[in-house]
Design a protein that fits this description.
Layout: H1 3-7, E1 15-21, H2 27-35, E2 53-59, E3 63-69, H3 77-89, E4 96-102, H4 109-120, E5 125-130, H5 140-147, E6 151-153, H6 162-172, E7 192-196, H7 210-221, E8 225-229, H8 234-239, E9 247-250, H9 255-261, E10 267-270, H10 271-279, H11 282-290, E11 300-305, H12 316-329, E12 334-339, E13 352-355, H13 363-375, E14 380-382, H14 383-390, H15 394-397, H16 402-410
Parallel strand pairs: 1-3, 1-4, 4-5, 5-6, 7-8, 7-9, 9-10, 11-12, 11-13, 13-14
Antiparallel strand pairs: 2-3
Helix pairs in contact: 11-16
Length: 430
């Protein structure tokens, strides 16, 4: 595998390894040693690293990873407190924590507190006893007894212990850090899958968007026959097939036409719904779609996107989704928008959160966002699930996913376990 191909693996599909430790413990030096590059700034001045720094690389046989360099956990003062808050926030997206300890310093409450926080988030922790070239008498077993974690002696200068460290990282990495497939479990080798990819103002020039690319690769990995068409050519493409396809997957914005042009006996869904399952919790997002019926004029809605991008004239996040929700609520709503790595701290102020497909963040981060919303008592839905629901075709779009479909079916006649109506709309809405 070439270096170029490794760098092209999307960040959201990489194992996230967070490097924690006190100021000047050697976190940045460790990242440079692991990558064999001068990636992170190294200085003898404590506190050189401020905000978390992300570096993509390959660690075999783990595969593509993201190494996250963080500020020191012993930062002091008001500014230090803000940096520490951002540092701790990295746990929301970390699949594995590497805790770096200076061999010349005693470990104590800072490290124990961080290990406790990692345990609360379900993040495994691996210790690194760094700078053993300067402190040859330092002993890892004593730290292991104190901290209750595996500790590997390392020198980033001589590279002693790096091979052992990588081996331990491989062993400690969660086996389920990412969903194994986007749709490979829905098909068999030799099945035909038709992908509908509109080429409109939102399509990047000369290429297609990341979820579509990842879906194509997943189909190839699962030995499926993949046919990619624009929405205008779908009917002709289906008519030309000798055997009907197992599945049609469409961009959410072409839902209505694709629904009309795809025979009812063929399963149909969207890229966004596939990614709702792949990156998050599809059932929770379906429940969020049902809550759209409860919106009233004046309610507050957060539209959250995991990346920043150029806005087109009829942008889905700033134009189409707000228009759709205003129509449903029957009046004006108050909208806030967030983009990038963080959502607003206080989610309780919102009546609904609408999230993008999350192709640019990893599964753990998206699950954390869903948990944040649910914990604040705020329903959350993603673009594709919402669009299908409002078009009255969510039932069909969920046909490949029985558990999510059952949740939707409950909305016709019943209430959920908490006694709240699952659907306040018409049969078409449900």
């Amino acid at each position: 595998m070439s270096a170029g191909s490794l760098n092209e693996t999307p960040r959201g599909s990489r194992l996230h390894i967070a490097i924690f430790g006190r100021r000047n413990a050697g976190k940045s030096s460790l990242i440079n040693a692991l990558t064999n590059q001068e990636i992170a700034i190294v200085s003898s001045v404590p506190g050189t690293t401020t905000d978390p720094v992300y570096k993509t690389m390959e660690i075999l046989p783990l595969g593509p990873v993201v190494l996250i360099d963080t500020a020191g956990i012993d930062e002091q003062g008001e500014l230090g407190s803000l940096r520490l808050k951002k540092t701790i926030g990295v746990l929301n997206k970390a699949d594995l924590m590497v805790l770096v300890i200076d061999a010349g310093q005693a470990a104590g409450e800072y490290e124990l507190d961080l290990i406790r926080k990692a345990g609360e988030q379900g993040v495994p922790v691996l210790g690194v006893l760094n700078k053993i070239d300067l402190e040859p008498e330092a002993r890892a077993p004593e730290l292991e007894w104190l901290l209750g974690i595996k500790v590997v002696p390392v020198s980033t200068v001589s590279r002693q212990g790096l091979d052992v460290l990588i081996k331990e990282m491989i062993g400690l990495a969660p086996k389920d850090w990412a969903s194994p497939t986007i749709l490979g479990d829905l098909i068999n080798p030799g099945d035909t899958v038709v992908l509908v990819v509109p080429i409109d103002l939102a399509a990047p020039k000369g290429r297609i968007i990341l979820p579509q690319v990842q879906t194509i690769r997943d189909l190839l990995d699962n030995e499926a026959i993949t046919l990619v068409v624009k929405e205008k050519e779908l009917k002709k493409a289906l008519a030309g097939l000798v055997r009907r396809p197992k599945l049609v997957v469409t961009d959410s914005q072409a839902f209505l036409k694709v629904d009309a042009d795809t025979p009812g006996e063929i399963m149909m869904t969207s890229f966004s719904i596939l990614f709702a399952r792949y990156k998050g919790n599809l059932e929770a997002l379906v429940a969020g779609a049902l809550a759209v019926d409860e919106l009233r004029p004046g309610d507050r809605v957060l539209i959250a996107e995991a990346c920043t991008h150029h806005r087109v004239e009829d942008d889905i996040g700033t134009v189409k989704i707000p228009r759709m929700l205003r129509q449903k609520a029957g009046g004006e709503l108050r909208f806030d928008w967030s983009s990038g790595m963080e959502m607003p701290i206080d989610l309780r102020q919102y009546n609904l959160i609408v999230h993008c497909g999350a192709c640019m963040i990893n599964r753990k981060e998206m699950l954390h966002r869903i948990i944040q919303a649910v914990g604040a008592g705020v329903p959350v839905v993603n673009y594709g699930v919402l669009i299908a629901y409002r078009h009255g075709i969510l039932r069909r779009a969920l046909s490949p996913f029985p558990s999510a479909l059952r949740l939707l079916e409950q909305s016709k006649t019943g209430v959920n376990a908490g006694g709240k109506s699952l659907c306040g709309g018409t049969g078409a809405d449900c």
